[in-house]
Request: fold
Amino acid sequence: MRIVVTGATGFVGSRLSEKLKQEGHSVVALTRNAASAQRKVAALDAAYDWDPMSEMPPAEAFTGADAVVHLAGETVVGRWTAAKRAAIRDSRVLGTRNLVTGLGKLTEKPAILVAASAIGFYGDRGDEELTEASASGDDFLAGVCGEWEAEAGKAAALGMAVARLRTGIVLGPGGGALDAMLTPFKLGAGGPLGSGRQWWSWIHREDLCGLIRHLIERKQAGVFNATAPSPLRQKDFAKVLGRVLGRPAFMPTPAFALKIVLGGFASELLSSKRVLPKATQATGFEYQFSDLEATLRQALGR
Reply:
């Protein structure tokens, strides 16, 4: 197949491009800097310049395309100033709107759009078990995810299958969320964040890439939780990471300290989302990594 990918230079997109290429597919990137993307990601067959915030993507990027994978979006990590919040929202909502508008102009459209979303959709839900059928939350990221998914869903009116992925914490080697977690552990200061009772829902990057390919092959429409079927409380997550690293994991970080340092982003680390991938498993998708310790050992080479 010929597959168009936005966010192809990112932590997930670069690995997805490699996996697709290994399987014999052609990979085309839509990116802010096409020349830079082709230098960074050897798996790309072609790359086209696109500013998702201000324009539709170039129609020639979709010539012969069978599928589109939309991963691009401003990182949520960092202090949530007014400007940061606007970038988080607009990069997702306006970017997806411009992408789907461009798809609507095509004479021949790809069969499927796989569009990223996030488990932020659910908000802070305590111990409640959350599936794809659960209602949305009412905080900032829940609102962003709702708008984001609505824009992606408009591609269904074009005759395309639309798969929306509510992605959890993505773990894997060489970057992503895990890199940010390592420093306090290496300093002997790892441990619970806040109470540590909040549920963290995670997925190995290999499984996320595998799920995307699985949905494309089946032209599977719907909402899918891109999380492993084994969420853990954050304090237990910390214990497992500490064990893998051979470091202590008992030093708590008070919630107020996180809020001082991280601002609004602290709410994501402290909120609880016990997410189960019921619809994902119903498609027949099989996880390679459902055990956190095995996942961390693979990601960290331990």
Q: What stands out?
A: The longest helix spans residues 82-104. Residues 193 and 253 are 5 Å apart (CA to CA). The mean pLDDT is 94.
